[in-house]
Design brief:
The complex is a heterodimer of chains A (about 400) and B (about 120). With about 400 residues, chain A is of the alpha+beta class. Chain A has helices spanning about 1-10, 15-35, 40-60, 95-120, 130-145, 170, 175, 205-210, 220-225, 310-325, 330-335, and strands at about 185, 210-215, 235, 250-255, 290-295, 300-305, 340, 345-350, 355, 360, 375-380, 385-390. A five-stranded antiparallel sheet of chain A has the order 1-12-11-8-7, covered by helices on one side. In chain A, β11 and β12 form a beta hairpin. In chain A, α1 packs antiparallel against α2 (about 15-35). Chain B is mostly helical. Chain B has a three-stranded antiparallel sheet. Classes of the chains: A alpha+beta (about 400), B mainly alpha (about 120). At the A-B interface, α2 and α3 of A face α2, α3 and α4 of B.
Chain lengths: ~400, ~120
């Protein structure tokens, strides 16, 4: 019986191993069985045999079972020169299978890498503008929207990522990098994203229409509010807003120290019943931006989320973006940058400077010819609208 | 260049080479010889034994013994194996390498008892 079990185990070995050694192995097992008598020793023998199966099976699979070399090559022997030749092993079916799997895997990986690397380049293989500057704007906006502080992201604190002298020289053609002439690239609509790119959630003006300040709430609402809650901006979410249960309106305090709460964490205040239709429900979103709440001129009756509340913030966003396109050295030369707000759009300009007779930098009006870098970005969400250079 | 299966030489293969250094042996006898020369520390099973033997045959380090004319002395049902000159050289080189290591170990005084 045990011999039959051993013969079954031998079937796990490669056929050529069995052809050559199965008889001998069974004979060997018989010899072992003859010597290993008694329950304990028999058990030990079987444990050894099973362990041997685990170690011996890989070894048996590695062998080629080809006839022995006629003139075997000596292995490393000290003092004797050794030569090695390529062994002519017969191809086994398993090798074909492994090769096929490996090839398919590599091809799949290659196609995936190729797909993403092409899709990542905004000017290639996409339906957006083919301009390099547009591509840079797109990438800057994308990095801002996703809130990642990567090396391409303009930072709010004004710090500039060390990206080398001029990345634009690699990404833009020579004509656009030269600070002469006017070239204006309109911003790419967020809706137009290259095919295959992950969905990017971007702030829009609509989403900034978050609520009303305390002072603009109707009197009965103010009276209904408990003491201590009469500050900040209140969001009144109508039915069906994302993140809000459909059956109940919700309230949320958006105060300076609690600016990005999730709506569903705020319980319905007990005084809600007195509200009635006092407050018209604005559109809200749970995707609140890191922003300040101010009056938006484009939407004068609303308090909204403003990502670019002042000139300093506008410059801090614009400076690294301009440096990406025109080079850090050029933008440093055009400092100080100035920003002014027009119709909800911040317009950031460099200062026109040039060397005077003594070779010193002068920025006096009328003394220099040429143009400056210009960037427009929306006040509401910080999206860059255009980057250009004046004459 | 394909990597050789026996480079470096596995312990089981080296033990088999050593066991065949004195006389021609069949599989079971090799197993016993290995067990004896290793003081019972190495006990080859059929799978390891014959896989190692096959690898040694493929490398030309051992060869099968031609039984014609010697059948009265040997068990005809079994295959006998013999060390080739290449196998002997390799076994010697391996043993010398171990001897060098042993010398170093002695010099470092990390051995105890009968190994000193």
């Amino acid at each position: 019986m045990s011999e039959k079990i051993f013969a079954c185990l031998l079937r796990l070995y490669p056929s050529r191993f069995r052809e050559k050694y199965s008889e001998e192995a069974i004979q060997l097992y018989r010899d072992l069985s003859r010597h290993e008598t008694g329950m304990l020793r028999r058990t030990g023998l079987w444990i050894r045999l099973l362990a041997d199966l685990a170690f011996g099976l890989p070894l048996a699979c590695r062998n080629s079972y080809a006839p022995a070399a006629v003139s075997p090559v000596p292995l490393t022997v000290q003092g004797v020169p050794t030569f090695r030749v390529l062994e002519q092993k017969p191809l086994r079916p398993g090798l074909f299978l492994c090769g096929s799997i490996l090839t398919v895997t590599l091809l799949s990986a290659f196609s995936v890498v190729l797909h993403y690397s092409v899709a990542d380049r905004s000017w290639g293989g996409s339906n957006v503008s083919g301009s390099p500057i547009a591509a840079v704007i797109e990438r800057l906006n994308r990095s801002m929207s996703s809130g990642q502080d990567g090396d391409e992201s303009p930072q709010r604190d004004g710090s500039v990522p060390d990206d080398g002298q001029n990345e634009a020289s690699r990404e833009a053609n020579p004509a656009t990098t030269h600070p002469v002439g006017v070239e204006t690239q309109k911003a790419i609509s967020p809706a137009i994203s290259p095919k295959g790119m992950p969905q990017i959630v971007r702030p829009t003006v609509e989403k900034t229409d978050l609520g009303h300040p305390y002072s603009q709430l109707s009197k009965n609402v103010q009276e209904a509010m408990p003491q201590g809650e009469n500050r900040g901006v209140w969001v009144i979410a109508p039915k069906g807003v994302a993140g809000v249960p459909r059956s109940t309106p919700y309230f949320q305090a958006v105060t300076p120290d609690a600016k990005a709460n999730s709506l569903d964490k705020i319980p319905i205040p007990s005084w809600y019943g007195s509200l009635g239709a006092a407050v018209s429900p604005p559109r809200v979103t749970t995707e609140q931006e890191d922003c300040t709440f101010e009056t938006i001129k484009a939407l004068p009756r609303n308090i909204g989320c403003v990502r670019v509340p002042d000139a300093a913030t506008a410059i801090s966003i614009a400076e690294p973006a301009l440096a990406k396109v025109y080079g850090r050295r050029q933008i440093d030369y055009e400092k100080p940058l100035t920003a002014k707000l027009e119709n909800g759009v911040w317009k950031v300009y460099g200062t026109l400077c040039c060397p005077d007779r003594n070779g010193r930098r002068t920025c006096d009006t009328g003394k220099c010819d040429g143009g400056v870098a210009a960037l427009e970005l929306r006040q509401s969400d910080g999206q860059i609208v255009s980057i250009s250079h004046t004459k | 260049m394909p990597k050789r299966k026996l480079d470096p030489l596995p312990a089981a293969a080296f033990q088999i080479l050593l066991s065949l250094a004195g006389e021609d042996l069949h599989g079971y006898a090799i197993m016993r010889q290995v067990e004896e020369q290793s003081g019972g520390r190495i006990r080859l099973g059929p799978g390891t034994l014959y896989s190692s033997i096959q690898a040694l045959l493929e490398e030309g380090l051992i060869e099968e013994v031609d039984l014609s004319g010697k059948s009265e002395l040997l068990d005809e049902r079994r295959r006998y194996y013999r060390l080739t000159s290449t196998g002997r050289k390799l076994a010697r080189a391996e043993a010398e390498k171990l001897a060098d290591l042993l010398r170093v170990a002695r010099a470092k005084k990390i051995l105890r008892g009968e190994y000193v």
